[in-house]
Amino acid sequence: MALLYTGHAQVVYEEGGSFNTFSFGEWCDFSNNHDGDDVIHTISIRIRVPKIIVLLFFDRFPTKEVKFTRNNLFERDRNTCQYCGRHFERKDLNIDHVIPRHHGGRTTWTNVVCSCIPCNRRKANRTPEQARMRLIRPPRKPRWRPFIEITFSQTADHSWRHFIDLAYWNVELGQD
């Protein structure tokens, strides 16, 4: 709605197989004749919730950091101990500082990994080299991937089908 209101997007409305676009003002006028559950009421206007919008210009994806949380750390390491390689339930994992805090290690994406309790005890307050343990994968800061993280809680609206089908076949694939 903010993009529509500021003029950065327009509503795409399909009727009888043809598509029309509406600016915010035009969409407000069009919404006056609609009675339904998909309407937002304000003090001065009522507006239909658009099902499809099109951006009028696109600069880049916004930069977004992955929050440094226990949940995201376990996601990054796929609930796998980074020392023995075994998969565990999250309740059986803990967080290990590769370079222990006692040795100046910081609590950052690049210095913490998931470890099982036995491996964490074995490593204790030492570096992996001192404990003669090897990391399966060096810790790294994850990147935010918007297309991977988007999930739909319900089936997409029927009016999206045309656009989703086109996107499926026409989006450039990445290289391995």
Brief summary of the model shown:
The chain is an alpha+beta fold. Helix content is 23%, strand content 18%.
Which percent band covers the strand fraction? 15-25%
Rg (CA only) = 25 Å
Task: State the low-pLDDT regions, or none.
Answer: none
Largest sheet: 3 strands, antiparallel
Number of DSSP strand runs: 7
Spatial arrangement of strands, main beta sheet: 2-1-5
Q: What structural class do you assign from the helix and strand content?
A: alpha+beta
Return the string of H and E elements. Answer: HEEHEEEHEEHHH
**CATH architecture group name of the largest domain:** Orthogonal Bundle
**What spatial form do the alpha-carbon principal axes imply?**
elongated
Average per-residue pLDDT, rounded, comes to: 84
Number of helices: 6
Can you give the helix content as a percent range? Answer: 10-25%
Distance between the termini: 37 Å
What features would you describe in this structure?
With 176 residues, this protein is an alpha+beta fold. The protein folds into two domains: 1-61, no CATH class; 65-142, DNA Binding (I), subunit A (Orthogonal Bundle), CATH 1.10.30. The protein contains six helices and seven strands, in the order H-E-E-H-E-E-E-H-E-E-H-H-H. The protein has helices at residues 2-5, 24-31, 70-76, 117-123, 146-149, 161-170, and strands at residues 9-15, 18-22, 39-41, 46-48, 53-55, 93-97, 112-116. It has a three-stranded antiparallel β-sheet. Strand 1 and strand 2 form a beta hairpin. The longest helix has 10 residues, at 161-170. It is elongated. The protein starts with a helix and ends in a 6-residue tail after the last helix.
